[in-house]
Amino acid sequence: MKKTNTMNNRFVMPRRVEFADTDMAGIVHFAAFFRYMETAEHELFRSLGLTLVDMERDPHLGWPRVSCGFDFIRPLRFGDDFEVHIGVANISEKSVAYEVEVVREGKTIARGHSTSACCEVGTGIKVRSVPIPAEARGKLQQYLVRK
Amino acid sequence: MKKTNTMNNRFVMPRRVEFADTDMAGIVHFAAFFRYMETAEHELFRSLGLTLVDMERDPHLGWPRVSCGFDFIRPLRFGDDFEVHIGVANISEKSVAYEVEVVREGKTIARGHSTSACCEVGTGIKVRSVPIPAEARGKLQQYLVRK
Amino acid sequence: MKKTNTMNNRFVMPRRVEFADTDMAGIVHFAAFFRYMETAEHELFRSLGLTLVDMERDPHLGWPRVSCGFDFIRPLRFGDDFEVHIGVANISEKSVAYEVEVVREGKTIARGHSTSACCEVGTGIKVRSVPIPAEARGKLQQYLVRK
Amino acid sequence: MKKTNTMNNRFVMPRRVEFADTDMAGIVHFAAFFRYMETAEHELFRSLGLTLVDMERDPHLGWPRVSCGFDFIRPLRFGDDFEVHIGVANISEKSVAYEVEVVREGKTIARGHSTSACCEVGTGIKVRSVPIPAEARGKLQQYLVRK
Asked: What are D96's strand-pairing partners?
């Protein structure tokens, strides 16, 4: 997957609508946008040499979602090529907030936001938020959206 | 599925977490909550004798999502029994806004909101918002959340 | 969820098609049938007082799929009420084979099969098949399909 | 997406496991393999200048699944890069059978098969199989697996 940093510090993930993403209204089902957003968040991490699920650490470190939402402006359809533009809106002690824009042929399809908390996770483990490791904190600054 | 109207005009949909709803963090994947919310919206419609996809009408009438979001407070896990409480927050000329609370054993798991616009839909058809039919408008009042 | 044992030892799970299960062809997306089958398998376990993911044991015990398939005969559509009939076709030392029939208004919608192996599982753990515990083996006999 | 034709006439689709593809067993959920297979089928069509959902035609032409299955050999995990190799096993008057192999670092992860029938489809339309158009038939020969 090619990735481009746009002028305003966004990470860009290209993607194509798959058949399973559609519903009987003939357009992309709204829940698919949340998967697109999540994958863009993971690819942003990956581009920084970070991982969203640190298996080396015990208990494992993950980033469960605290809140998220989308405003839907135009529909996407089967086979459409589009881009997810994602930037870091804010970094606090234990969580990161993202801004997302889904774009097709230069037009905004949807605008989303998401906040994930750095947590200890794992099957059978009580989810507990912990401070963001210094390395991740430093690297994530690279995609901090310029206001 | 049994359904109960609580005192504050909410429609209640019981549900159990399925294995496919979980992710490798050992909890329900956040995108599953949007499916839960949507199905609760459909069951609310159904309880009123309404359908969310009117196939009799040509072009078909559907309710694409305009915006939606969730705040996640506690995790859900495989096999958990929970309830989705949904009420109508607002009805405008062409759209309906819902309030949702996901509840397990009396504790709030997540709070969501969603707005759907009444639209002409269908494969190969340009999505276009239209006024909400009078029957639907009248019946939806029944779940209008008392403030 | 009400459950009925039919004469031929099948466990029966009633279900309704949800909007997110459909695709732009206006019918239930084929991959949804595999989720239906899996949930029926879990409900069968549950009806026997068994769990498909034993978290008490360390490492955890799970039942990853070894093989599965479906033949699709008639389409399902949004809002359709249907049943998944599931029986145990065979129990070997480390795996269980199931037979599934998806039924709507007395007509066969699809026929499926699935084999799961009893395995040690968990995030960061190498999946390894182990003998089926005696209790599970005994109880699963109850749904052995009479030939 | 880069695509390579291997010596034995397979179309190859590279892909990376997304977080939403995993389940609480810490591996890719088995139903995700069916989405991978379907997307590979669509990309194969696309590489031939064909579309799986012909919207120009009225009623629309689609390819509902008649049967499909998978044998799972090794697990896939979050972030894994893998390939779906897909070839045409057989072309009959109204349907096409595919052979699929999911490969990671030269090792077989899973083997699948799928048969789709050429059908008239659409919301509110009775699904009916029709002969495969001559152009599609001719082009699909290109990926006919050499035995």
From this structure: D91, D116
Q: Least CB-CB distance to A26: which of B24, B68, B125?
A: B125
- The whole-number pLDDT of residue B69 equals 98
Cα C48 from chain centroid?
14
Inter-chain contacts counted by CB atoms under 8 A, chains A and B: 76
Considering only CB atoms, which chain B residues are within 8 Å of A41? none
Record: contact A123-D24, CB cut-off 8 A: yes
Question: CA–CA separation, C41 vs C18, rounded Å?
Answer: 19
Q: How far off is chain D from B122, nearest CA to CA, in Å?
A: 7
Q: Which helix (H) or strand (E) holds A89?
A: strand A81-91
Low-confidence ranges of chain B (pLDDT < 50): 1-6
Answer yes or no: are the C-beta atoms of B17 and B80 closer than 8 Å.
yes
Task: Show residues of chain C in contact with A77, CB under 8 Å.
Answer: 24
CB contact (8 A) between residue D60 and residue B20: no
Nearest residue to C28 (alpha-carbon basis) of B59, D121, A75, B64: D121
**CA atoms of A96 and A116, how far apart (whole Å):** 6
Q: How far apart are CA C80 and CA C62, in angstroms?
A: 31
Q: Which residues of C touch D (CB under 8 A)?
A: 24-27, 30-31, 34-35, 38, 53, 62, 64-72, 75, 121-125, 127
Q: What is the mean pLDDT of chain C?
A: 90
Q: How many CB pairs under 8 A join C and D?
A: 76
CA distance A147 to chain C (A): 37
Confidence class of residue A147 from pLDDT cuts 50, 70 and 90? Answer: low
Residue entry with tokens 């897909």: D86
Contact D140, D7 (CB under 8 A): no
pLDDT of D147: 66
For chain A, the domains span 3-143
Under CATH, what is the fold of the domain B3-143? Thiol Ester Dehydrase; Chain A (3.10.129)
CA distance D80 to chain A (A): 12
Q: Sign of torsion, CA D113 D47 B124 A13?
A: positive
Q: What is the ipTM of this complex?
A: 0.90
Nearest to A31 by CA among A40, A21, A39, A41: A21
The neighbour count for residue B54, using CB atoms within 10 Å, is 18
Sheet holding A60-62, edge to edge: A60-62, A119-121, A128-129
Which residues share a beta bridge with A111?
A71, A101
Residue B131 one-letter amino acid: P
Positive or negative: CA dihedral D132, D134, D135, D138: positive
Give the helix, strand, coil percentages of chain D, each rounded to 5. 20, 40, 40
Residue whose C-alpha is closest to residue D100's, from D21, D26, D12: D12
| Of A29, A77, A123, Cβ closest to residue C123 | A123
Exposure string (b/e) for A65-93, b if CB count within 10 Å is 16 or more? bbbbbbebeebbbbbbebbbbbbbbebee
Calculate mean pLDDT across residues A45-71: 87
Split at pLDDT 50, 70, 90, the class of A53 is confident
Show residues of chain D in contact with A46, CB under 8 Å.
79
